[in-house]
Amino acid sequence: MAHTAPTGTIVAIVGEQSDDALATLDGLAGVETLSLHGSEPDLATRRIAAAGTPWIVHDADPLEHVAAAWVELFEQRATLGALELEVETAIARFDSGAALMPDYYIVLEPQDAPDTWRHWWCGALGHHAPQRVIASRAPAAPADAAIRRLLTALPSSRPWPDPASWLPHLPFEIPDRIGLRD
Fold first, then answer.
1. What's the CA gap between 18 and 158, in Å, rounded?
2. In the sheet where 104-108 sits, what is the strand order?
């Protein structure tokens, strides 16, 4: 079932304190915050697609399973086949409209993430649209305005390439080597 893309800018906040970050945006005019992490993926996509505000900020990552499979592959806890299956599933979801790629990812405290996860956020994912993966500190308090300020200063850049053009190449996106030329 295809979904119409919302007209607003979609921002996914990822990291252990994503709930806290979303809470700092509560009540902000023009911003709809959706706590969707752990929701059934089709429901999350429908809720995002139904939003009608200029900013749609949520915590549901459409590449969550791909990311986990990539990390597990390079930590030797999964096989190449597991990553390939997750990539195929994600591409099918994007093609059918059952998943929406966010315009931006805000990654909370990536410097504190385990090494391979940091390479996912800042390398394997970020390499394809560097200005669309933004590192941020996590909110220090409920009234912390850092995420609000970040929303007003997101850089313009080329959009994400079609996920089908780069997701199948993830097995070759080696941590510590992504973006480097031999």
1. 25
2. 31-34, 55-58, 9-14, 104-108, 133-136
